[in-house]
Write a structure and sequence with these properties.
- This protein is of the alpha+beta class.
- The chain folds into 2 domains: 2-50, no CATH class; 56-264.
- 36% of the residues lie in helices and 21% in strands.
- It is built from 8 helices and 10 strands.
- The chain has helices at residues 2-17, 23-50, 55-63, 109-119, 147-156, 165-173, 222-229, 243-248; strands spanning 69-78, 80-81, 84-90, 97-100, 102-104, 121-123, 138-141, 187-195, 208-218, 238-241.
- Strands 1, 5, 6, 7, 8 and 9 form a 6-stranded mixed beta sheet that branches. Strands 2, 3, 4 and 10 form a 4-stranded antiparallel beta sheet that branches.
- α1 (2-17) runs antiparallel to α2 (23-50).
- The two termini are 37 Å apart.
Length: 268
């Protein structure tokens, strides 16, 4: 917007120059106007560079700006031991298989009510919601022209869940796979994010955008390392998968690995 305003002011100034006769004010206004035009062009170039990973989003904003889109914003854990990555069994009948530990971020309902109303954001009910999935960032944006504003809100880190420990606890500690005493807290680092374009959903009757932040678990001591290795005994619920198995979407013994699991792998 700043670039558009700057460019518009500059353009108006250049047009005014054509109607001026006095050379001195004409030259001054021309220089000022040219500065605004150049500033607007620079703002536009910066915007393009900053959004280079969002070309698919920008394209759909132009071509289908008033169409709805399903948005899922989640976090996934990369937990690697001896060259293999830990996946956990997904029990929901609609898409069973093994996937990384993690899940959808939560948002604060009351704090975001005004913003979400303005952006046309509402809960997605394609999958039944309950007390566990309430306030998940699995939402419908009624007009996808507001997608960038929603992502900008998320990346501002305001009024939303910040710590990924909740899903780690619910999936590994609470069921008893890992000791509560050993994993009272965890150390992790942010690896990066995986932002897909707006794609046709293979499951739902609506296009969707999936955004995932990737965190890597860093075991703090030998006790935590031992606990992680002991996950091997839960062979039905936990899968230690190689990168090739994850890319092939199946383990060597035929277990299904869900397609989004590749997001935890290193890029190279």
């Amino acid at each position: 917007m700043k670039g558009i305003i700057s460019f518009s002011i500059g353009l108006i100034g250049l047009i005014i120059c054509f109607f001026l006769v006095d050379a001195e004010p004409k030259a001054t206004i021309f220089k000022i106007a040219l500065g605004f035009v150049v500033g607007g062009i620079i703002e536009f170039i910066v915007y393009i560079i900053e959004n280079r990973n969002r070309w698919n989003i920008l394209k759909t904003l132009i071509l289908m700006r008033n169409k709805p889109v399903r948005v899922t914003i989640a976090y996934l854990f990369r937990i690697e031991m001896n060259g293999k990555y830990i996946l956990i069994k997904r029990h929901k009948k609609d898409n069973p298989g093994y996937q990384p530990i993690g899940g959808a971020y939560k948002y604060l309902k009351e704090e975001n009510r005004e913003l979400f109303d303005k952006l046309g954001v509402e809960p997605c009910h394609f999958v039944p919601r309950d007390e566990d999935t309430e306030h998940d960032l699995r939402v419908i944006v009624n007009k996808r022209k507001n997608l960038v504003k929603l992502l900008r809100w998320f990346e501002s880190r305001k009024n939303r869940e910040l710590d990924p420990y909740r899903e780690f606890y619910e999936e590994l500690v609470e069921p008893g796979f890992l000791s509560k005493n050993v994993f009272k807290h965890i150390k992790y680092i942010f690896i990066g994010k995986h932002l897909e374009g707006v794609l046709k959903s293979p499951v739902y009757p609506i296009d969707e955008l999936r955004y995932a932040e990737i965190f890597e678990l860093r075991t703090e001591d030998d006790a935590q390392k031992k606990e992680i290795m002991n996950l091997l005994k839960f062979q039905d619920e936990i899968l230690f998968a190689t990168p090739d198995e994850i890319r092939k979407k199946a383990s060597h013994d035929g277990k299904v690995i869900l397609s989004h699991s590749f997001k935890i792998l290193p890029l190279c």
